[in-house]
Amino acid sequence: MERKNAWKKYTKEQIEEIFEFCEDYKDFISNCKTERECVTETVRMAEQSGYKDLKDCIENNIPLKAGDKVYINYMGKAIALFQLGTQPLEKGMNILGAHIDSPRIDLKQNPLYEDTDIALLDTHYYGGIKKYQWVTLALALHGVVAKKDGTVVNIVIGEDENDPVVGISDLLAHLSADQMAKKASVVIEGEDLNVCVGSMPLISDDEGEKKEKELVKANILAILKEKYDIEEEDFLSAEIEVVPAGKARDYGLDRSMIFGYGQDDRVCAYTSLAAMLQMEQTTKTNVCLLVDKEEIGSVGATGMHSKFFENAVAEVMNLMGDYSELKVRRALANSKMLSSDVSAAYDPNYGSVMEKKNSAYFGRGIVFNKYTGARGKSGSNDANAEYLGELRRIMDKHDVNFQTAELGKVDQGGGGTIAYILAQYGMEVIDSGVALHNMHAPWEISSKVDVYEAMRGYRAFLLEA
Ligand code: MN
Ligand code: MN
């Protein structure tokens, strides 16, 4: 039961279209390397497509009706888009969901220190990373500093080609006898992921200043003060993420793949959003839900466990003049969802952890994972066979290449997604998405035709489910 390679169905002209779509995707992941940057860009794209801010509608009591398009920006880190259908909301929605947070390294609250005339930033990594992959790379700083007076300073350092980059050092090969004998999980330890940011003392004409200690750190603080008007204490209320510096690029001599940071899960977020923004009005209400904190368990106010989405559904129904507690519950229970997250694409270099009949492959289209989980499917949302049957019909009708897969061999490991959280409402949910090589590494790889088929699959779902 081998699945077909999607490239083969396309003409040269169509392949150019695929590549063009992927240029926009590459721009998105090159410019949006934090959940906040993803939300800001999503708002921009949504407004361009005629979406209005739900918060404005609530505040000004603006009624909503079929055909209207609204979004809710939740704390700048999660967002939901609604395109209202002609059918009452209680009949259910078609929901595309994905997460926009990615594995990375966060600065600690008190990060800056000096050691032997080197200025460093202390960090706490975020999500499941292999720490040894993050040393000796060009890294960038992205994030916000919230000052006491309420102003929020945006920071991006290391992306412009004239910007400096920062990085985490590794031990030289010549002195690595002890290090090389260690287990890979402790070759680089979490507490040692310190980002080097400077080595030059503050140059000053002031004799008193010259005698002060820690002048390298003082110099960094002077630069931050001058460029961003921030003080050392302002780090206490900052969210700064250390991410790989540089743009996404074509990968492979045939340019068939994309090499980029944060494709888990922005590849599903972007393709879901692209499908959503292209949609004409349908009978059912369409939703695109992009959330934060998946990589650390979907917790917090902007993670999928938060009630912000349920509350937004209630607000939308209220503005449509159709609210009751029971109707909100029905709207959620009657919904269908593609909960999209990345899958592991079969990698010939690491074939031993995969079971070939039930692996995802580059080039074979959007992936459906009936279940995920580990140790006997534990923690997984096991989608209903009937729902999968419906999805097969929809994908085949629209000639979308799809494949089914598990994440690796039984008992080899596993992973979770947001699927089970939405399933708690009683709606039909399945894990779907795009397969990657290098998942959770600084640079992840996707196949261009899979990115394209995912977008086509989402569009087909919104039209037909
Ligand atoms: Mn993910
Ligand atoms: Mn992940």
From TrEMBL:
GO molecular function: aminopeptidase activity; metallopeptidase activity; zinc ion binding
GO biological process: proteolysis
Enzyme class: hydrolase
Enzyme Commission number: 3.4.11.-
Keywords: Aminopeptidase, Hydrolase, Metal-binding, Metalloprotease, Protease, Zinc
Entries under InterPro entries matching the protein: Peptidase_M18, Peptidase_M18_dom2
Entry keyword Protease: yes
Highest taxon listed in the record's lineage: Bacteria
Cofactor(s) in the UniProt record: Zn(2+)
GO cellular component assignments: cytoplasm
Record-stated family: Belongs to the peptidase M18 family.
UniProt protein name: M18 family aminopeptidase
